[in-house]
Request: fold
Amino acid sequence: MKPYGISWEEYIKLEESKRAQYLNDKGKIYDVIFSQQYDKSFLDEIYILTNKIRLISKTREGQRFLKNLLGTKKALLYFIQPSSRTFLSFFSACATLGIACTDIRSTEISSESKGESPEDTIRTFSSYFDAIIMRHPEEGYAEKASFVLNNYSRRPIPIINAGSGKDQHPTQALLDIFTLQKSLGKIGGVDGKTIMFVGDLKRGRTVRSLSYLLGNFKNVKFIFCAPEGYQMEKDIVDYLKERQYEVVVTSDMKKYLSDADAVYMTRLQDEYDKVKGESSLYNTSDFSLGLHNINLVKPSAFIMHPLPRRSEISTDIDKDPRALYWRQMRNGMWTRAALLAYIFGVDTEIIQY
Ligand code: NCD
Reply:
C-alpha cells in the first residue's frame, strides 16, 4: 500500500466513495472497513467464491486442498467487544483456509493497559501477523487503524472490520445479502423487494451496513420500523432517498408487516446507553415477532436476525420454514472464508479447483 499523501483529518473528511479508493490495492479491496466499498461485481465474485468453498468443503480431499492454501499466513482476531458468532465464524473460516489464528479479547491483557497508544498497539500487532480482524466499541477505529498502517508502517497488513461501535459491520452485511439472495432467488432475487427492519435501528450497526449494501440492488423498498428515539439515523435515510429508493419510517409494525419480503429483526442495543436504565422505556413487545403476529408475514417472506436475540423473536418461530437466522450464521463462515481467500489472493486457485 502506498501512503495516501494526506493527513488523517483530510482523509476522514472525504466521502466514503473516495475513501474506498484508498482502501484498495491494485484495484482490489485490501482493507474491509465499510460496506460502501462493495459494489455489485464484487458481490457477484465473492458469492461465486463462497459457493465454491462450500462445495469443495464437502469432501476430505477438498478440505485438504483448502487447508493448504494459506498455511503460511497468520491472523490476529482483536475482539475487544463481546462476540460469539462473528468471532467463531472468522476463526473457523481461517481454519478452513489454513490461516493460523490467535486472539486478544480484552485491552486488559494487551499493553494498552500499560498506557500504550492505539496507534502503537496496532503497529505492534502488524509486526507479527498478516491480517487483523477487529471488533472495537469505537466507531471509526478500524478505519483509523488502516490509515495508521497504510501510512506509517513499513509493513502494512489488511484490516477487516468485524464491527465498529454503532457504525458498521460490513462482513455481517455480506452474509446477510448472501442469505437473502439465496432465499429470494426463486422469486427473482433482491431487486424490487421490500425489506423491513425492526428494532433498535439507531444503534444497530448490522442494519446500517446492510442498508448501504442493499443500495446495490434495483427498486428495493425500505421500511424502517423502530420506537421513537431508536429510529434509523438520517444519514442512511438520506443516502437511500438520494438514490431514489422508497423509504418508510414508522413505529407501526402491524401496519407494514404484510408488505415485507424479508423482515430483519434486531435487539435493543442497550450496551450503548449513556446512562444506566436509559432504555428501560423501550417496549420490545411492540417490536417483536411471535405467534401473535406471524400470520401477517407473507408466506413467501423470510425472517432474519443477526443474533443474538432476546425476546424480539419468540422461539415459537424457530421452526417456521421462513426463519433464516440459523442459516445466516452458517453462511457467515462461508462468506468470511471467501473474503479472506479474496484478500490473500487465492480466489482464482479456488475457482479453478
Ligand atoms: C451483531 C453485532 O455484533 O452487531 N451480532 C453479530 O455480529 N452477529 C448484532 C447484535 O449484537 O445485536
Q: What stands out?
A: The pocket of N-carbamoyl-L-aspartate is lined by residues 85-86, 163, 169, 172, 205-206, 266-267, 306-308 (CB under 6 Å). The mean pLDDT is 96.
